[in-house]
Amino acid sequence: MACKKRSTLATAIRLHRNFHFKTGLLLDTGVRLLGVHRCLLTKPFYKAAKLAGYANVALASMALVVLED
Fold first, then answer.
1. Which of these ranges, 3-17, 20-34, 54-68, has the smallest mean pLDDT?
2. How far apart are CA 48 and CA 57, in angstroms?
3. pTM score
4. Alpha carbon 34 to its chain's center
5. Are 4 and 67 in contact (CB under 8 A)?
6. Which of 41, 45, 64, 42 is nearest to 53 (CA)?
7. Apex CA 48: angle with CA 35 and CA 52, to 5°?
8. How far is CA 21 from CA 2, 3, 40, 50, 55, in A?
9. Which of 20, 35, 39, 40 has the fewest CB atoms inside 10 Å of its own CB, making it the most exposed?
10. pLDDT number for residue 4
């Protein structure tokens, strides 16, 4: 029984998604420790960056589902 070879594109997308997920969690923890997410001037930027990160991870996950089927 032979294993199906994974696509290089799928591997690249998976690594990209995992990188953004892990660095996003680390940065979010740092921001919360410093209290930047509470400041009135930086709160909108924090929310926008967090939304963009979640969108990036979600799109990469959808691309993986399409590529692996």
1. 3-17
2. 14
3. 0.71
4. 22
5. no
6. 45
7. 120
8. 32, 28, 26, 11, 11
9. 40
10. 66
